[in-house]
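User:
Note these tokens:
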Amino acid sequence: MHHLPALALILLTHPAVATPAPADLIYAPPMAPGIAALPHLASSDAAAENINAALAAIEANKINRARDCLVSPRSDYRFSFEVTLQGPEFLSILTTDDFYCDGAAHGSMFNSVLLFDLTTGAAVDPLSL
């Protein structure tokens, strides 16, 4: 019991450092069958608006690519993602495009990383870190 005053003194002189909360994300249903909608940031500050605009542009690109690929009934296009880092400094999303467009020799699959600075809203090149 004699350790309690020492513990209280430590806690009072060394305040806990608050860990920033992770970025709150909003998840939407798929944009089309097999084509996921990317999550968007729930906040409305300038950085979040920049990131959400970039995510919306990527979604539009995926819809256009799927539309171009799926003109033939023997084609398939899938888009999925996984949030790999959700703050406090960065948002990282691993995306996967998996498709076969009629006339191609074989299907293809591509992974890419979307990395954003949550304080500025800027896209970050993962290799630059």
Observations:
- The CA atoms of residues 98 and 109 lie 4 Å apart.
